[in-house]
Task: inverse folding
């Protein structure tokens, strides 16, 4: 049985790659244009995942997860996907939503990292305290 030897990349990392690849393009556009066409092949090379896997994650997971319905009935989503005869897959990203989602994912990541660091520090202090108690008893 063969197992995949490459690391499974997180959604945060995929969105970060998209952000850094297309930030300058978005920055040059007018305020009214919020959708940026993305190149799945370019992103898959940078993220070290196949284009099919990347499209699958975007289409089946990220697109439905980050689709928002507004109070007035309209909706907006992180990705806009255009399938032409099932062969030509064109994806666009809503850059302002990407910035918001990525900001939230980054905040969650660093909060978890901080919590884990504090837990390890408290465990280390407890162990030092235990060693001192045993040695000087």
Result:
């Amino acid at each position: 049985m063969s197992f995949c030897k490459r690391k499974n990349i997180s959604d945060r990392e995929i969105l970060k790659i998209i952000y850094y690849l297309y930030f300058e393009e978005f920055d040059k556009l007018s305020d009214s244009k919020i959708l940026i066409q993305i190149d799945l092949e370019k992103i898959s090379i940078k993220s070290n995942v196949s284009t099919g896997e990347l499209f699958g994650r975007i289409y089946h997971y990220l697109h439905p997860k980050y689709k928002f319905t507004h109070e007035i009935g309209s909706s907006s989503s992180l990705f806009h996907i255009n399938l032409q005869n099932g062969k030509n897959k064109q994806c666009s990203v809503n850059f302002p939503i990407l910035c918001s989602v990525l900001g939230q994912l980054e905040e969650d990541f660093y909060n978890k990292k901080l919590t884990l660091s504090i837990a390890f520090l408290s465990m280390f202090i407890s162990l030092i305290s235990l060693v001192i108690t045993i040695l000087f008893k």
